[in-house]
Each structure stands twice: as structure tokens, then as C-alpha cells.
Amino acid sequence: MSAAVTTAGRATRDDTPPAAPSPRRTARRRGWGPTVFALPALVWYGLFMAGPVVAMFVISLNTWASLISPHEFTGLDNYRRMFDDPVFWDALRNTGVQLAVSIPLMIPLAFMLGYYLQLKPPGHRTLRVLCFTPGLLSLSAKAMIFMGMLAPEGGVNGLLDSLGLHGATTPWLADPATALASVILVDVWSGIGYTAVLFAARLASVPDAVYEAAAIDGAGHWRRMWQVAFPVCKGFVGVATMLQFLWTLFNSSATVLMLTKGGPGTSSTTLSYLMYQRAFLQQDVGYSQAVGVLLFALGLVGMVVIRRLIRQNY
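^ that's the sequence the OP posted. Answer follows.
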């Protein structure tokens, strides 16, 4: 009898499942492995991504002629000089105009062109290549093309003269009224075709049955484009808008440098070009990094606003 009880008790103990490990121990075991494998990427990010951002903030608090010259900590003096500088306010206004014109103009036109390419009209392959070509050209090549077109004796004025519009001719890059518009024109021309090809690639993943169902319901191309295609790829539109916003905000200095050098006067000076000008031409690195901190803040705010305005509804 006692042997039977002992055997039954042993069986009961053997059938009992092992105790589950504590959540803390499981998390610790899972946490070390991914961290070790991600360590090289984290080191790379810390040195080459986060490091320059931190250095920008530090340099903006110093009077620094160049990175190899002595420097002196001056606190917020560079920011005070920046806000007291009328050139900074001109650059801020020009940057605002550039963003307010180029982004609302480029993204809708690129989306409409991408939708048209997705329909595969006759010669659509050649049209895709032509749209993508501006993205393959170097910035110096683009600048030379538009300098030839917008010169006083260039192609645009020659066309206006041939049409009898002599009063409309002007030195486009040397006229304060048209210099910034010329820079914006180059940015839009450079980005609209490239972005359209990306939109066409995204729209190609939408099943044809979706468009066919909308057509059966009586929707024309215009309604199918904006009420069917646009909501489907709205998230991608938001990504494209953020990328174009950041490119215009941070990288337009090269276009300004090659076409107008910020002139005439400050009529085409943008914040990114002002940062370049102060750092490399006027040897005022501390001031330039103060402008860079402001650009960094504007970039963050702009990305948040775009993400709020353009997001998927499903």
C-alpha cells in the first residue's frame, strides 16, 4: 500500500510542468543577443549621425573662425547676432517662400504625372526615362543648362523676343524680382519627374480591379486619381513630401551657389546658403552653426506637421 502511494506521488511530481522562467530573466536573455548584433550599427550612428548634431550645438555656443583656429565660449552670443542680422531675416523669408511654392507645386504635379504613367499610355517607357533623366544629371550640369536658358541673351529671352514680348525679357538671374523664382524653378524641374516615377511605381501595386470597380460606379479618371489612387498611397505621398521638404530646406544652397550666389543683394539668399556663406566665405563657423541649429529645429517641426497633415486613414 505504501509503495503504491509512493509511486503515485512520484508520478504526480513527474507530471508537474516545470516552472516558467520569470519575465525579467526572459527579457534579459532576449535583450543581450539583439543588442550585441546591433552594436556596430549603434556605434556608427552615434559617431557619424548623432555626433555631428551634438557638435553643431556645441560649436554654435562658441566664437570660432574655423575648425583649426582657437575658439572662445560665448554662450548665446551667436544667436543674438543672428536674430539682429537683417540678412538672416531675408534668408528666413526667402526659405519660407521657397518651401511654400515648391512643395505644394511639386507634389501634386508629380502625383498626377505618376498616375498618368501608371496608366501606361503609348510611349510610357520613353516618358519614364525622360522624367527620370533630371535625377541623373549632376547639379553642376543642371546649373549650366539653366544659366544658358536664363542668361540675358539666353533661350528664354530669345523665345520671348521671337514672340514679340520684348517687354517681358529680363536678366532672370540678376533681377531681384526673379532670382529666387529662378532657383525655385530649377528645384521643381529637378524633382518633379523623379518623384513622379516613384509615385508610378507605388501606384503600380494597386490591383486593376480597384480601378475597374470605380469605373463601373461611374468614376472618371479625375475621380479615380484623387478618390481611389490618392487615398491608397497617401502614406507614400507623406514620405515623398517630407523628403522634398528636407531636401529643399537643407540642400538648396548648392543651387543658389551655382546660379545666383545669394544675389542680387540678398534676394535669393536662403538659410542653407547663409550657413554655407558664413562658414566657408566669411570664416564665422559659430554663427553658421547657430543657423544650422535653427534649420534643424525647422526640419523637425516641418516633419511633424507633414506627418500630421498627410497620414493614412486606414
